[in-house]
Design goal:
Strand order of the largest sheet: 5-4-17-16-18-19-20
Pfam families: ACAS_N, AMP-binding, AMP-binding_C
Family: Belongs to the ATP-dependent AMP-binding enzyme family.
Bound molecules: ligand 6R9
Keywords: Acetylation, ATP-binding, Ligase, Magnesium, Metal-binding, Nucleotide-binding
Number of strands: 30
Protein name: Acetyl-coenzyme A synthetase
InterPro entries: Ac_CoA_lig (IPR011904), ACAS_N (IPR032387), AMP-bd_C (IPR025110), AMP-bd_C_sf (IPR045851), AMP-binding_CS (IPR020845), AMP-dep_synth/lig_dom (IPR000873), ANL_N_sf (IPR042099)
């Protein structure tokens, strides 16, 4: 166990940081003792058209769950992200756009330009009859127009719902219909890693299943030929030239919804997570500034896609609310080669770099050379998000990318939370590789006994992770289904927000996420987080990635089924299989030895890089006939290979 190994804050770093260790303790204590006063102050980060007089009005009781922050305040999110910076930094770059092809020119969009583009886009929306409260689906590649579209919706008070460009026509149609969207904004096609996805053709296919009133706004990005339906399809870029370059921001209530983002739960169809305007923006602005220790002039890069919550909070809303320069990348980490991320960091002098463990592990498989080719001296802070990071990947990130001198912020949060809840602050928190460390201001994590539901008081413990009281960035409801919201998050453990994650708290009060509670397996009466076994497997030099699930086992109750992706160039042999089984036995103990180990050339992942365990469980159970919806996978083909070579055949 690495519990005792603390990586101190680099001395030179603490000096200039927004928050030091002492300040963290003092401010955290204050945020919990008097949340009203604390957040009343933090709310002033934004410009309000009408200031709020009420700060917090929240209830977690099942049957009457209701979450309101700054509820009588009036503001406009787009004005906060753009207009208010014009006077002081109109000519500063707001967005750096790096295209898929490294040979194509990057674009630098100043705040002045952003203002004009957002206003023009907003006027196009208005011309199509989109008004305050209407829903708009955004199905775009990672291009500046995605940012314009989101901010244009916010400017006129329309509620956007971004659908990841990798999603299928079916997934798109379901979302259009669930939120009753008035318009879909898409592009001709999306280049990614040198390949192209026809977004317009996908949208055409989706719209066959939707009301014929839905308008289709098309950004001609690649110039690829598409079919065109007159009267329904609109050429956004040419219309933008014809409309006025100004558009007054719509005054919005703090609790008016800003966006809906669909996310999958453990059961049922995707939920439309609803976020507010005021509280959400306060929370992402604050976390963006403090967690990444953002300072004026820094170039900040989050590699997520805007179709994911990380892209909403930490490419767009948080950074722009802070007047930052935020980088948007259209491509993938391995195109044209495994040095692309680092080439971009060097080219644009990136100061804060935020990515996912899955990307780090994939790049680790290509060795140090692609990193060492570039000058990464501009980097100040590194970050991760999305899943627990195994210590090997952490160490590689720290040593090879960070040269052992950059704090790594391992940020635990969820679509539902709007922003970071557990995270180090780079100038304040000594790190422990693999731990999301401690709560952000205003967040009171508690650990409950999964059986009794009782709060565990001891510092050192393990259980399910809940949050005791509301924070401004919390989701407000499930679109169209408040009952589902209450049932999913407030019914299992009364009076608390239930995260769905398990965690361990160590003697220092550091939190270690052990994975989704539904990923816990029980082998011969021993409870085991699948993440633990995965972490052991990926610690082996030949393993690039691993996913572990339980499957029904006659004697043990559940057996351990491991899917293993090897490093480039390593041959899968029976000897290696035996070696890996032995390896896990030695790393964790005999109980953790995989019963079945399958070589997986690829793992089924969502576009945000999360392994879809539901599918792996079905294959492990030899129940491939009922895989369910695989439309949200990044590469649905990997499933066929896994089914064909499955180990458990009845
Ligand atoms: C932001 C985001 C949420 C789930 C969450 C947890 C896992 C995210 C993590 C992490 C360990 C971290 N997760 N960050 N686990 N350490 N730093 O990822 O949102 O897509 O909704 O996923 O991701 O299991 O519950 P979302």
């Amino acid at each position: 166990m690495l519990d005792d190994k603390k990586v101190p804050v680099p001395g030179s770093f603490a000096e200039g940081a927004h928050v030091t260790a002492e300040e963290y303790e003092e401010r955290y204590a204050r945020s919990i003792a008097d949340p009203e006063a604390f957040w009343a102050e933090e709310g002033k980060r934004l410009d309000w058209i009408e200031p709020y007089t009420r700060v917090k009005n929240c209830n977690f009781d099942l049957g009457s769950v209701s979450i309101n922050w700054f509820e009588d305040g009036i503001l406009n999110v787009a004005a906060n992200c753009v207009d208010r910076h014009l006077e002081t930094r109109g000519e500063q770059t707001a967005i750096i756009w790096e295209p898929d092809e490294p040979g194509d020119a990057a674009r630098h969009i100043t705040y002045n330009e952003l203002h004009e583009q957002v206003c023009r886009f907003a006027n196009v929306l208005k011309s199509q009859g989109v008004a305050k409260g209407d829903r708009v689906i955004i199905y775009l590649p990672m291009i500046p127009e995605a940012a314009y579209a989101m901010l244009a919706c916010a400017r006129i008070g329309a509620v956007h719902s971004v659908v990841f460009a990798g999603f299928s026509p079916d997934a798109l149609a379901n979302r259009i219909n669930d939120c009753g969207a008035k318009a879909v904004i898409t592009a001709d096609s999306a280049p990614r890693g040198g390949k192209r996805t026809g977004l317009k053709s996908n949208t055409d296919a989706a719209l066959l299943h939707c009301s014929d009133k839905v308008r289709c706004l098309v950004v001609k990005h690649t110039g690829d030929q598409t079919t065109w339906i007159d009267g329904r399809d609109v050429d956004v870029l040419s219309m933008m030239e014809d409309v006025a370059p100004d558009c007054d921001p719509e005054p919005m209530g703090a609790e008016d919804p800003l966006f809906i983002l669909y996310t999958s739960g453990s059961t049922g169809k995707p939920k439309g997570v609803v976020h507010s305007s005021g509280g959400y923006l306060v929370y992402c602005a604050m976390t963006h500034e403090l967690v990444f220790d953002y300072h004026a002039g820094d170039v900040y890069w989050c590699t997520a896609d805007v179709g994911w919550v990380t892209g909403h909070s930490y490419i767009l809303y948080g950074p722009l609310a802070n007047g930052a320069t935020t980088l948007m990348f259209e491509g993938v980490p391995t195109y044209p080669d495994a040095g692309r991320f680092w080439a971009i960091c060097e080219k644009h002098d990136v100061a804060q770099f935020y990515t996912a463990p899955t990307a780090i592990r994939a790049l680790m498989g290509h060795g140090r050379e692609p990193v060492e080719r570039y000058d990464l001296s501009s980097l100040k802070v590194l970050g991760t998000v999305g899943e627990p990071i195994n210590p090997e990947a952490w160490n590689w990130y720290n040593e090879v990318v960070g040269k052992g001198e950059r704090p790594i912020v391992d940020t635990w949060w969820q679509t539902e939370t709007g922003g970071h809840l557990l995270t180090p602050l780079p100038g304040a928190t000594p790190l422990k590789p693999g731990s999301a460390t401690r709560p952000f201001f205003g967040i009171e994590p508690i650990v409950l006994d999964p059986q009794s539901g009782a709060e565990i008081e001891e510092t050192e413990c393990e259980g399910v992770l809940c949050i005791k009281a509301s924070w401004p960035g919390q989701m407000r409801t499930v679109w169209g289904d408040h009952e589902r919201f209450e049932k999913t998050y407030f019914s299992d453990y009364k009076g608390y927000y239930f995260s769905g994650d398990g965690c361990r708290r160590d003697a220092d009060g550091y939190y270690w996420i052990t994975g989704r509670v539904d990923d816990v397996i029980n082998v011969s009466g021993h409870r085991m987080g699948t993440a633990e076994v995965e972490s052991a497997l990926v610690a082996h030099r030949d393993v690039a990635e691993a996913a572990v699930v339980g499957y029904p086992h006659d004697i043990k109750g559940q057996g351990i089924y491991a899917y293993v992706t090897l490093m480039n160039g390593v041959e899968p042999t029976d000897d290696l299989r035996a070696e890996l089984e032995k390896w896990v036995r030695t790393e964790i103990g005999p109980i953790a030895k995989p019963d079945l180990l399958q070589w997986a050339p690829g793992l089924p992942k969502t576009r945000s890089g999360k392994i879809m365990r539901r599918i792996l469980r079905k294959i492990a159970e030899d129940d491939a006939g009922s895989l369910g919806d695989t439309s949200t996978l990044a590469d649905p083909d990997v499933v066929d290979d896994l089914v064909e070579n499955r180990m458990n055949r009845k």
